[in-house]
Write a structure and sequence with these properties.
single chain, 39% helix, globular, binds nicotinamide-adenine-dinucleotide, Ald_DH_C, EC 1.2.1.27, NAD, methylmalonate-semialdehyde dehydrogenase (CoA acylating)
Length: 496
């Protein structure tokens, strides 16, 4: 049984016939679950036009009414969180408990957006000059585009959509074509919550849809999350078309383990953060930097934990790690295992020979030790269940490894030495840092973003920086003078 997955434009499912479609798989069985319509230029125009028509009314909708829609959406999402988790697992493959975690973190962002009336308060300076008041207003941008990756099909759209609409913008969301159904579920719940037609539209597709949004003169801003080459392209193309762009890219996240760390806790964390969601997380730990002399003991503790991981269909409560998202991605990840062996890294656990179910896009957890920083398993973002251990002689050597890496999304240090941890938080050139926390995804009232090649643009996602990104500020200087105070004065106004 396959189904058709189509665009959501102006509050309803698109009724046209697509020129191109893409297959959507069940990664656990390898079967095609559905076909998703791919937008051409005509559908990009339709979606943007719907969002543009909805903008004047939504912009003028009171803060109270906007936040009430978000509160209702939050209630609906909470009541139906299990359904959304099942949709995620069915198309992405991650295990249900992990999908439920994704939905929980998504709801955090909706809750933050419910506070829009507080966030959108401007400043007011009475008597900035005698009888002159100055105040600021945060206004929406207009139609904004959100382009999201496959690995968090609900959470990443909800990093942006609630804050964008809370600020009074209207949205065209272009989710990943690999797992498009979660975004439609979200759009339908928003409609049920009372969001007017056209305020949030979902446009499916590939590069054609993305390019259409990047070049469209009516689209004022783009929030993008995906791999670094595409993030760079989106940033450069969008800004060259005069748009405000935040483009979050890929990662290679290092977990430094100092000699004084509790090695059992560190090994638990490395396995959880390395193989959760089959390593398909932008905040996954993909490199462990073991500072001498703990390397041998740490590698052996990690390997023994890997041996007891259950790989299987994400719908089964026993499974701890699901399949990869597509056959092509599984093959690409497996090719890195071969590349690591050829480059001379020590293959401690070979996921290619792990017991996995038949049919789907499977690869077991893999561990390499004695990885050098010139090997492709170190330099490239693999985005799969492959963990690399790099040995370092000292804290300074470990820090140098992390800081020399072109990515700067997340990092963690495991230690019981507060002074070393504080030094690390100060010296490391990475946007999100965990002190004995392996996946330091900031809560919804902070903002999420990496440094260096992990983010293009100057705004991080969600939280206060999200509100900043989705508004532009107007500063008003006002006075109500007595007519007797008139008179021509060609001098530059001074404050008195
Ligand atoms: P991707 O870059 O392949 O795709 C992301 C989006 O861009 C999708 O909507 C896709 O349709 C579109 N796209 C793909 N190729 C394109 C092209 N040539 N031109 C224009 N648009 C194109 O990423 P993915 O494989 O879906 O997701 C995994 C990547 O996302 C990883 O690199 C991961 O690290 C990254 N990611 C980063 C963060 C973060 O916050 N920094 C969060 C999640 C995922």
């Amino acid at each position: 049984m396959t189904r058709r997955i189509s665009h959501w434009i102006d509050g309803k499912s698109w009724g046209g016939v697509a020129d191109r479609t893409g297959e959507v798989f069940d990664p656990a069985t390898g079967e095609v679950r559905g076909y998703v319509d791919f937008a051409g230029d005509g559908q990009v125009d339709e979606a943007v036009a719907a969002a543009a028509r909805a903008f004047p009314g939504w912009r003028d909708t009171s803060l109270a009414a906007r936040s009430r829609v978000l509160f209702r959406f939050r209630e609906l999402l909470t009541a139906r969180r299990d359904e959304l988790a099942e949709i995620i697992t069915g198309e992405h493959g991650k295990v249900l408990s992990d999908a439920a975690g994704e939905v929980a973190r998504a709801i955090e962002n909706v809750e933050y957006a419910c506070g829009a009336p507080q966030m959108l308060k401007g400043g007011f300076s009475e008597n900035a000059s005698t009888g002159v008041d100055v105040f600021s207003i945060a206004q929406p941008l207009g139609v904004v585009g959100v382009i999201s990756p496959f690995n968090f099909p609900a959470m990443v759209p909800l990093w942006f959509v609630p804050n964008a609409i809370a600020c009074g913008n209207t949205v065209v969301l272009k989710p990943s074509e690999k797992d498009p159904s979660a975004s439609l579920f979200i759009a339908e719940l928003l409609a049920e919550a009372g969001l007017p037609d056209g305020v949030v539209n979902v446009l499916h597709g590939d590069k054609v849809a993305v390019d259409g949004l990047l070049a469209h003169p009516v689209v004022k801003a783009i929030s993008f999350v995906g791999s670094t080459p595409i993030a760079r392209y989106v940033y450069e193309t969008g800004t060259s078309h005069g748009k405000r762009v935040q483009a979050l890219g890929g990662a290679k996240n290092h977990m430094v383990v100092l000699p004084d760390a509790d090695l059992d806790l560190a090994a638990d964390a490395a396995v959880s953060a390395g193989f959760g969601s089959a390593g398909e997380r932008c905040m996954a730990v993909s490199v462990v930097v073991a500072v001498d002399p703990v390397g041998d003991e740490l590698v052996s503790k990690i390997a023994s934990r890997m041996g007891s991981l259950t790989v299987g269909d994400g719908r089964s409560p026993d499974s701890e790690m699901g399949p990869l998202v597509t056959a092509a991605h599984r093959d690409r990840v497996a090719s890195y295992v071969e590349a690591g062996v050829s480059a001379g890294a020590l293959l401690v656990v070979d996921g290619r020979s792990a017991p996995v179910p038949g049919g789907g896009f499977w690869l077991g957890p893999t561990l390499f030790d004695r990885v050098r920083t010139d090997m492709s398993i170190y330099t490239d973002e693999i985005f799969g269940p492959v963990l690399a251990v790099v040995r370092a002689g000292s804290y300074d050597d470990a820090l140098a490894v992390v800081n020399a890496n072109p990515y700067g999304n997340g990092t963690a240090i495991f230690t019981n030495d507060g002074r070393a941890a504080r030094r690390f938080q100060n010296e490391v050139e990475v946007g999100m840092v965990g002190l004995n926390v392996p996946i330091p995804v900031p809560v919804g009232y902070y903002s999420f973003g990496g440094w260096k090649d992990s983010l293009f643009g100057d705004s991080h996602a969600y939280g206060p920086e999200g509100f900043h990104f989705f508004t532009r500020t107007k500063v008003v200087t006002s006075r109500w003078p007595d007519p007797a105070q008139g008179g021509v004065n060609l001098g530059f106004p001074r404050n008195s």
